[in-house]
């Protein structure tokens, strides 16, 4: 059983899917003498442009029409990426250039809830990526492809081989890959529909159109085998989106990023894999690039998490110039055995791993803004702690009575009548005193007497007096 | 005005509502546990502690519960603390330092965002914040995030906000005493304002806590 996804608008989509429909756009046959429109977007169509029209005529109709030359290499790359993406539905994907994906789905029907449900998921998935597809399911790849190309507006599903002749009978001959001369020959004989050909004796057809075409018909009906090469997706991911117009606000860049991330996570799903390092590349008008690398603490394949991280990173980037193209690159797609934590898509509201939280926070606030804290085996109070990676464990030291808050810098206290004062009030010292003398070896030695003090309004403070020099008083901590 | 929108409001307490089951985080102070619905600090909700100033014992008041959560492998996120949370004192109070997350946003708006993210994450047992700004609407967002992440959201705020309406499930006002603090309950779910309860916080942190407490086991009261 084969599912065929025919992408009639691929020549256009390689230019447009980076942005929602905006200005009228057409794709032409290239820089030749008489370029013709191959495809156009709805805003252009609404103003009278249609495929087949001369580009000059289209310009006359729509003066602000943008015309791009067809980029067949980009179409081929797009089809290959979709082939990798489609691997999430079946292990056997085949590409039928220039515009058709073939999925062998017999083994996937139960998993995805039957042919209708599977077709819906493929169609919806492609739509999220910005591709419009006509789908059909049939027992042979050719029949599925022809049915999809007929663009009936529904998804034809033919489950039995015996029903194929009837299902194909009504299709116009244009759905078949035929040379224009062959098509003209058939039309000259009054043949316009596949059914009319199928009814003719094979010998006569072979004489008129060549034996290869008879064989094609037999393959479509399943009388002759039709092996298809399985597409082997590459072990890296590189997605590109051209933006139809140069874009300078982050929201519109994010639109494109969203589509690329969905493509990437589909590919990851297909491999049951994950990524741990990514690079988002923004190509600017002059060809300059802004590179935004993203390193993750653990392998991830959850699209929402990746999107949240990329969004946070993008929001912190100042764009030096408008963006013309967006690319997402993952040099290494990890296989399932490389690390096992955190791979399963989190169920809604389920507990997230702390790494994800830290990553999300760091993406927006910067790496230094999210830290752990640990003890240091050191007598000088200001050096008895340090920040560290979240989750790290430091020394385990028992100290004396210490305040929960440490001031970033000790604050000099006023002294009156021989007592330390704070905020114009005298402090009351508790009896206990702790002497700390340390650090003579590194030149930052301290010699202090520490006291717990209470101010008139009930705060408990940690203060010290220098044992040498001016014997000043300082506030260093608050009991909190 | 129909009843439904009113019932949706997080800041509206319904008389006769069944008090929550006893799944609070034990405070470490028997008198407080008795006063709080749920038998402790409310998980999955905001607690607002209103203070005349720093240093009167608000942190010491919550420290036994924080220590307990950290030893249950739950993270403690400190968002924009006013001073350095001092590692030796936290360790002495029994906190597992490897479960402490310090978050220092630059802008106030980033601060509220960070509080919301940490509350919602489902990873943190408690989130401590000192929001200088934040109207009732912002607090409601935080309350919803705390519910979603089943997290104890702790907001330390100046006491002049006592008359501002608040969606927090528990609101306390602390008044310093000769020894320790007096805890006034301004709002609690399933009960009226209450207190004050006198808590001797000066001697909570002094002893180094003993062996880790297993989740669910009884916490030594009135330490």
Task: Give your account of this protein's structure.
- The complex is a heterodimer of chains A (480) and B (223).
- Helices cover 30% and strands 28% of the residues of chain A.
- Chain A contains 14 helices and 21 strands.
- In chain A, the strands form six sheets. Chain A has a five-stranded antiparallel β-sheet with strand order 14-21-20-19-18, with no helix packed on it.
- In chain A, a hairpin with a 2-residue loop joins β15 (414-416) and β16 (419-422).
- Chain B has 223 residues and is α/β, with parallel strands linked by helices.
- Classes of the chains: A alpha+beta (480), B alpha/beta (223).
- Chains A and B meet through α14, β12, β13 and β14 of A and α3, β3, α4, β4 and α5 of B.
- β14 of chain A pairs antiparallel with β3 of chain B.
In brief:
The complex is a heterodimer of chains A (480) and B (223). Chain A is of the alpha+beta class and 480 residues long.
Topology:
The complex is a heterodimer of chains A (480) and B (223).
Chain A: E1 2-6, H1 10-16, E2 25-28, E3 37-40, H2 42-46, H3 55-61, E4 66-69, H4 72-86, E5 92-96, E6 100-104, H5 114-129, E7 134-138, H6 141-149, H7 164-169, H8 180-188, H9 194-199, H10 202-209, H11 211-221, E8 237-247, H12 250-271, E9 275-284, E10 289-300, H13 303-315, E11 323-330, H14 354-365, E12 370-375, E13 385-388, E14 405-412, E15 414-416, E16 419-422, E17 425-426, E18 428-438, E19 446-454, E20 460-466, E21 473-478
Parallel strand pairs in A: 2-4
Antiparallel strand pairs in A: 1-6, 1-7, 2-3, 5-6, 8-11, 9-10, 9-11, 12-13, 14-21, 15-16, 16-17, 18-19, 19-20, 20-21
Chain B: H1 3-8, H2 30-35, E1 45-51, H3 58-71, E2 75-79, E3 84-85, H4 87-92, E4 100-103, H5 108-120, E5 124-129, H6 136-149, E6 152-158, E7 170-176, E8 181-187, E9 194-199
Parallel strand pairs in B: 1-6, 1-7, 2-4, 2-5, 5-6
Antiparallel strand pairs in B: 7-8, 8-9
Helix pairs in contact in B: 5-6
């Amino acid at each position: 059983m084969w599912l065929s996804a025919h992408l009639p608008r691929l020549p256009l989509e390689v230019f447009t899917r980076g942005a929602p429909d905006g200005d009228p756009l057409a794709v032409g046959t290239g820089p030749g003498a008489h370029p013709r429109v191959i495809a156009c977007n709805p805003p252009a169509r609404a103003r009278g442009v249609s495929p087949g029209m001369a580009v000059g005529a289209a310009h006359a109709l729509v003066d602000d029409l943008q015309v791009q030359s067809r980029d067949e290499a980009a179409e081929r790359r797009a089809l290959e990426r979709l082939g990798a993406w489609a691997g999430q539905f079946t292990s056997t994907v085949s590409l039928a250039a220039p515009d058709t994906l073939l999925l062998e789905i017999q083994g996937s029907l139960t998993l995805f809830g039957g042919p209708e449900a599977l077709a819906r998921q493929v169609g919806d998935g492609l739509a999220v990526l910005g591709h419009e597809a006509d789908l059909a399911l049939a027992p042979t790849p050719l029949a599925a492809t022809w049915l999809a190309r007929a663009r009936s507006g529904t998804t034809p599903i033919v489950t039995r081989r015996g029903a194929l002749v009837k299902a194909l009978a009504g299709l116009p001959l244009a759905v078949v890959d035929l040379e224009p001369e062959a098509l003209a020959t058939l039309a000259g004989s009054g043949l316009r529909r596949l059914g009319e050909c199928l009814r003719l004796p094979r010998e006569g057809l072979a004489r008129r159109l060549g034996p290869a075409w008879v064989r094609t018909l037999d393959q479509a009906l399943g009388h002759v085998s039709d092996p298809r090469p399985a597409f082997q997706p590459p072990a890296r991911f590189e997605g590109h989106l051209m933006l139809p117009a140069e874009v300078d606000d982050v929201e519109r860049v994010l639109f494109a990023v969203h589509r690329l991330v969905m493509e990437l996570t589909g590919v990851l799903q297909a491999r049951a894999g994950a990524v741990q390092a990514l690079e988002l590349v923004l190509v600017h008008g002059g060809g300059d690039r802004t590179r935004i690398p993203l390193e993750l603490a653990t392998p991830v394949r959850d699209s929402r998490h990746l999107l949240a991280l990329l969004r946070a990173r993008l929001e912190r980037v100042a764009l030096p110039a408008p963006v013309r193209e967006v690319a997402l690159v993952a040099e290494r797609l990890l296989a399932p055995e490389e690390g096992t934590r955190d791979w399963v898509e989190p169920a809604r509201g389920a507990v997230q791993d702390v790494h994800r939280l830290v990553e999300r926070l760091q993406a927006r606030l910067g790496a230094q803004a999210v830290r752990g804290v640990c003890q240091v085996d050191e007598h000088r109070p200001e050096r008895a702690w340090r920040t560290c990676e979240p989750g790290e464990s430091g020394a385990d030291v028992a100290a004396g009575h210490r305040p929960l808050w440490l001031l970033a810098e000790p604050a000099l206290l006023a002294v009156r009548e021989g007592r330390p004062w704070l905020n114009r009030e005298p402090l009351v010292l508790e009896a206990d005193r702790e002497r700390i003398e340390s650090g003579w070896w590194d030149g930052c030695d301290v010699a202090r007497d520490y006291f717990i003090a209470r101010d008139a309004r009930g705060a408990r403070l940690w203060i010290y007096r220098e044992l040498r020099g001016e014997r000043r008083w300082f506030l260093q901590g608050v009991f909190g | 005005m129909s009843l439904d929108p009113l019932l949706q409001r997080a800041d509206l307490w319904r008389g006769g509502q069944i008090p929550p089951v006893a799944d609070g985080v034990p405070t470490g102070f028997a008198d407080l546990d008795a006063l709080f619905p749920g038998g402790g600090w409310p998980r999955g909700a905001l607690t607002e502690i209103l203070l005349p100033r720093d240093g009167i014992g608000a942190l010491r008041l919550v420290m036994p519960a924080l220590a307990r959560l950290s030893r249950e492998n739950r993270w403690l996120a400190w968002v924009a603390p006013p001073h350095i949370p001092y590692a030796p004192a936290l360790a002495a109070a029994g906190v597992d330092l490897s479960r402490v997350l310090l978050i220092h946003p630059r802008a106030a708006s980033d601060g509220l965002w960070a509080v919301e993210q940490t509350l919602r994450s489902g990873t943190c047992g408690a989130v401590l914040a000192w929001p200088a700004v934040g109207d009732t609407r912002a607090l409601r967002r935080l309350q919803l995030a705390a519910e979603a992440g089943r997290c104890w959201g702790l907001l330390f705020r100046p006491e002049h906000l006592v008359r501002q309406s608040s969606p927090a499930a528990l609101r306390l006002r602390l008044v310093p005493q000769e020894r320790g603090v007096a805890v006034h309950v301004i709002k609690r779910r399933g009960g009226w304002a209450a207190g004050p309860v006198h808590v001797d916080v000066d001697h909570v942190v002094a002893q180094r806590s003993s062996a880790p407490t297993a989740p669910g086991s009884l916490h030594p009261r009135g330490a």
